[in-house]
Amino acid sequence: MISVEEALGRILDHFQPLPAETVSVNEAYGRVLAEDIHARLTQPPKAVSAMDGYAVQAADVARVPADLTVIGAAPAGNPFGGRVGPGEAVRIFTGALLPDGADAIVIQEDTEASGDTVTVKESCAEGHYVRPAGLDFKEGDPGPRAGRALTARDVGLIAAMNHPWVPVRRRPRVAILSTGDEVVMPGEPLKPGQIVSSNGIALSAFVRACGGEPIQLGIAPDRSDQLGALAAGAKGADLLLTAGGASVGEHDLVQTALQKEGLELDFWRIAMRPGKPLMFGRLGETPMLGLPGNPVSALVCATLFARPALHRLQGRREPAHPVEPMVLGADLRANDRRQDYLRATISTDGEGRKVATPYVTQDSSMLAMLAAADGLILRPPQAAEAAQGSLVPVLELRSLAEGL
Q1: Eight-state DSSP code of residue 232
Q2: CB 166 within 8 A of CB 25
Q3: Burial class of residue 227 in the structure, from the number of CB atoms within 10 Å of its CB (0-12 exposed, 13-18 middle, 19+ buried)
Q4: What number is the average pLDDT over the span 216-243?
Q5: Distance in angstroms (rounded) separating the CA atoms of residues 16 and 12
Q6: Is residue 22 classed exposed, middle or buried when 0-12, 13-18 and 19+ CB atoms within 10 A define those classes?
Q7: Domain region containing 242
């Protein structure tokens, strides 16, 4: 068995960022930038009003009350064409260009209008409620950087910077193949000994959450020829994920069946729990990651190995495994030679610290527990006993779905 770190390193050696493509800014949410974005204009282009009120010369309202003559109006998008002189004011609205000659905005709540005259009841200084040119950004200023998965905020900024089209990495195409005579799709009749297949559906959702496009190849029965025929559908994909058939039983056929189809095996079995029977290789030009058939093991291994691969394919800069220290909520016994990933809940104590409490039962068949878990406590091989209240590294599962 090899270590988790060695396995991940050997997997990532097979992946490079995919080519870029151009999409509409309306379609850019969640995509990964292929190039840095810079502003194509200055925002605001000139000084504008930050409030509804009156554009004035600050010197005219240094002493109040002050009566000023209203010489016009400046709605947003329709600038006032004249100039504000001493003793004059222009009715102005939020976002409208500041008229020439004016240097301050008096908000309407501090005024009283009567015909062509406005009485200012509160004084203000030069620049009051004025947004100067370039307050938000200037032409050439940097925006979101390459390698960032775009949020709604990013997309808004890119649009404001006057980019109708955005260069992004192509989405990774991930073929998914489940195996086993014992599994059937949800809703189908169950024969004795059969179980409902969740791996393919869960892995499709996982791939989408990681920015990829899943390609469902179906469920291969425990027959070498049919498994190989279905796996052929992965040709042209950026990654093939198989679930099941990676262990040591005589019906665990993925390795032998795919080797007949040209699989070049890199490694098989890693020192971790859950997920020991994990394998990796290449089927033709397609990297292949063989996940365990146990749904919990499959998802944990996908998190630890498929997610970083999909990050690399998209050129993402942020870490695929955002691990942080948290307070341990229960005692842990010493670990053996396999790296453990303990399902845990995460809460906050009275001091505002995150507390990770492992479930008492860590059986890898319990998908409901994984669905309810907030994180995975990482226990290195041969880790000593850990007492409640000590710090442990935790991979917070919630964070994996955020930031898109």
Answers
A1: G
A2: yes
A3: buried
A4: 86
A5: 8
A6: exposed
A7: 4-16+170-314
Single out the residue of 314, 72, 334, 358 nearest to residue 212, CA to CA: 314
Each residue of 141-156: pLDDT tens digit? Answer: 999 999 999 999 999 9
Same domain, 217 and 296: yes
β-sheet with 239-243: strand ranges across = 213-220, 173-179, 239-243, 286-291, 279-283, 263-268
pTM: 0.88
183-187, 305-309, 360-364: segment of lowest average pLDDT: 183-187
DSSP secondary structure letters along 267-322 = EE-BSEES--S-EEEEETTEEEEEE-SSHHHHHHHIIIIIHHHHHHHHT--S-SS-
Residues 353 and 286 in one domain: no
What is the domain-level CATH number for residue 382? 2.40.340.10
pLDDT for 400: 59
The alpha carbons of the chain give a radius of gyration, in whole angstroms, of 31
Grade residue 249 by pLDDT with cuts at 50, 70 and 90: very low
Three-state DSSP at 199 gives helix
Give the CA count within 13 Å in the CB-facing half-sphere of 63.
0
> What is residue 13's DSSP assignment?
T
Q: Is the pLDDT of residue 251 over 50?
A: no
> Is the Cα dihedral 196, 201, 206, 207 positive or negative?
positive
Number of other residues whose CB lies within 10 A of the CB of residue 226: 16
Say whether both 210 and 287 belong to one domain: yes
- Are both 242 and 290 inside the same structural domain? yes
pLDDT at 237 over 60: yes
Are 400 and 316 in contact by the 8 Å Cβ rule? The answer is no
Residues in Cβ contact with 205 at an 8 Å cutoff, skipping those fewer than 6 apart: none
Q: How confident is the model at residue 328 (pLDDT cuts 50, 70, 90)?
A: very high
The number of residues in the chain equals: 404
Q: What is the model's pLDDT at position 401?
A: 54
Whole-number pLDDT of residue 247: 55
* SS3 sequence of 308-345: HHHHHHHCCCCCCCCEEEEEECCCECCCCCCEEEEEEE
